[in-house]
Amino acid sequence: MMHFSDETLMAYADGELDPATGAQVEAAMAGDAAMAGRVARHRAMRDDVYASFAPVLDEAVPQRLRDALRPAQAAPASPAPAYAPGPAANHSRWSLPVWGALAASLVVGVLIGKMAMPPFAAAGGKSAAVATVDGRLAAGGALARALSQQLASAPSQGQAVSIGITFRAADGQFCRSFTLRDGPPQSAPLAGLACRAPAGGDRWLIPVLVETPPDAAAPAGYRMAASAAPAVLQAIDERIAGQPLDAAAERQALQRDWRP
To answer: How many domains does the chain have?
Structure first.
């Protein structure tokens, strides 16, 4: 009987395997109910995560990202030096969809310098939604309140924060995915993952935060990469132990104040 890693099964669930390997997985699933169940769980988790980011698909792409994706003006032609022909380089890896993914996922290292200033700092003297604490990103203000009090199973319309899925990490702490719209209307929403600090207290630490600006008018590859929020999905895959919490388990965790 063939055995496959979780990474391979997740790739199969996402339709990313080559045909030969995909056929091997399907053959193994036909004779192994446990493996088929693992694939079904991966698909269910991905569907939940994608659904939590679905509202972001209606947001407009910031003009600065549109400008970055626009082809540069061609430079005047100049005589090329003679060279011996060699194998053609494969530049397909750096095509528009890949650059779109890079532009759509400005990971925490890029955003960290912006956390203490608009648009992420709330107006009127209120606490910023994201701040740095001891060199780590942590939730504050409206984001911290939503992570501690808001149920994904009972979403509220018009809120700055939308909670996606809730799950236990391998260390027993609770983690929750979210989207945040805490800036001016033209600013891109953020998608991220927050996990309860292991040292106790009520702090939510943010291991990953990405800017997610998809748009229906954007190129198809760009829209797909943006909607998937790959950095957040990877962070969930690396931490989740078991299945996401259902509505009843989520409510119980909230009533216990998210204690393990």
So the answer is: 2
